[in-house]
């Protein structure tokens, strides 16, 4: 957090999510987790579901399943409703802990929320990426720097959501 401010990087959900994902990708899991918790405790920054998912997914990728499950509990305690992406990360976490009953319970929850059994199975195997086609970054810096390419902040936010919500499953990007 202090490094971002020192480099005059705007501290917002976009920069925070990019930084956390980058730390996990670089193998700096402890630093990523510490930064996540700093942001979560910062009243000026409202951590959202995407940032929780990035932290949980990063932990699952390196086999720190219990920490991912703990963050999932924190996320729910903080009032966030898990999405299908969140549930898919938790299926992988529970499976990694060899708690197949818990993983099946999550799949059943997904089905109860209206997802078909086939889609629930598919979501349980997805890999969550920050960028479309596995690219890193938000893809909005050029847009922000070129002030005449957008009229409202909503346009930038929409581009961010489009670029940061990619998943890969069974040879397909979505």
Description:
This protein has 174 residues and is mainly alpha-helical. The protein has 10 helices and 3 strands; from the N terminus they run H-H-H-H-H-H-H-H-E-H-H-E-E. Helix 2 packs antiparallel against helix 3 (29-41). The longest helix has 13 residues, at 13-25.
Comma- or semicolon-separated keywords:
mainly alpha, 4% strand, three-stranded antiparallel sheet, 174 residues
Spatial strand order of the main sheet: 1-2-3
Percentage of helical residues? 55-70%
Instruction: Report the total helices.
Output: 10
Structural class: mainly alpha
Mean pLDDT: 74
Overall body shape: globular
| Main sheet characteristics | 3 strands, antiparallel
Total DSSP E strands: 3
Indicate the multimeric state: single chain
Distance from first to last alpha carbon:
31 Å
SSE order: HHHHHHHHEHHEE
- Poorly predicted sequence stretches spanning 5 or more consecutive residues: none
Radius of gyration: 17 Å
**Fraction in beta strands:** under 5%
């Amino acid at each position: 957090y202090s490094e971002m401010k020192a480099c005059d990087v705007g501290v917002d959900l976009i920069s925070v999510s990019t930084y956390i994902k980058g730390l996990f990708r670089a193998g700096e899991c402890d630093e990523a987790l510490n930064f996540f918790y700093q942001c979560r405790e910062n009243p000026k920054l409202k951590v959202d579901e995407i940032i929780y998912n990035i932290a949980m997914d990063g932990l699952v990728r390196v086999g720190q399943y219990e920490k991912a499950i703990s963050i999932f509990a924190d996320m729910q305690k903080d009032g966030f409703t898990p999405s299908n992406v969140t549930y898919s990360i938790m299926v992988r976490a529970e499976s990694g802990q060899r708690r197949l009953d818990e993983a099946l319970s999550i799949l059943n929850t997904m089905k109860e929320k209206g997802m078909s059994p086939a889609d629930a199975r598919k979501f349980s195997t997805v890999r969550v990426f920050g960028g479309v086609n596995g690219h890193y970054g938000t893809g909005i810096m050029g847009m922000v720097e070129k002030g005449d390419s957008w009229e409202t902040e909503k346009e930038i936010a929409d581009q961010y959501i489009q670029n940061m919500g990619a998943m890969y499953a069974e040879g397909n990007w979505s």
